[in-house]
Amino acid sequence: QVQLVESGGGLVQAGGSLRLSCAASGSIFSINTMGWYRQAPGKQRELVADITSGGSTNYADSVKGRFTISRDNATNTLYLQMNSFEPEDTAVYYCKALIIRFGGPHVYWGQGTQVTVSS
C-alpha cells in the first residue's frame, strides 16, 4: 500500500507565504514525476507545478516566479514553497506521484490540503 500525505496548508494573507509538503510512504520501488495540482471551487483541477526524479521542473504560468517546487528523493518528500500569494491561489492543493512498484507504475494522489488566501 502507498500513501501520499500532504501538510502545510492554511489561511494566509495576500502577499504571504506557505510551504506545502507531501510525504510518500509504503511499498515503493522508485518515484518518477511528482507534482502539485489545485482545485478551486467550481473549477477543474489544474497543474500547479511538477518535477521529475532528475529535478526538471515545470510551472503553470500563473505561479511562475512565485512558487517553487522541490523534492527530496532520499525521503520521498515533495515540497511547494509558495510566496506572494494572490486571492486567486485559494484552492485545495493535491500532491500527485507516479510511483513504480513491483506491479508496475501507478498514479497516486494525496487527500488534499486547503489553502485560503485572504485579501
Describe the structure.
- By secondary structure, the protein is an all-beta fold.
- 0% of the residues lie in helices and 61% in strands.
- It is built from no helices and eleven strands.
- It has strands at 2-7, 10-13, 18-26, 30-39, 46-51, 57-59, 67-72, 77-82, 91-101, 104-109, 113-118.
- Strands 2, 4, 5, 6, 9, 10 and 11 form a seven-stranded mixed β-sheet that branches. A four-stranded antiparallel β-sheet has the order 1-3-8-7, with no helix packed on it.
- The radius of gyration is 14 Å and the shape is elongated.
Give the key terms.
mainly beta
Shape: elongated
Q: How much helix is in the residues?
A: under 10%
Total number of strands = 11
Main beta-sheet strand count, sense and barrel state = 7 strands, mixed
Distance between the termini: 40 Å
Gyration radius, rounded? 14 Å
Count of helix runs: 0
Written as H for each helix and E for each strand, in order along the chain, the element string is: EEEEEEEEEEE
The average pLDDT value, as a whole number, equals 96
Q: Which class of secondary structure composition applies to the elements?
A: mainly beta
Query: Spans of 5+ residues with little confidence (pLDDT < 50)?
Result: none
User: Which percent band covers the strand fraction?
Assistant: over 45%
Kindly summarize this structure in a few lines.
The protein is mainly β and about 120 residues long. The chain has strands at about 1-5, 10-15, 20-25, 30-40, 45-50, 55-60, 65-70, 75-80, 90-100, 105-110, 115-119. The strands form two sheets. Strands 2, 4, 5, 6, 9, 10 and 11 form a seven-stranded mixed beta sheet that branches. It has a four-stranded antiparallel beta sheet with strand order 1-3-8-7, with no helix packed on it.
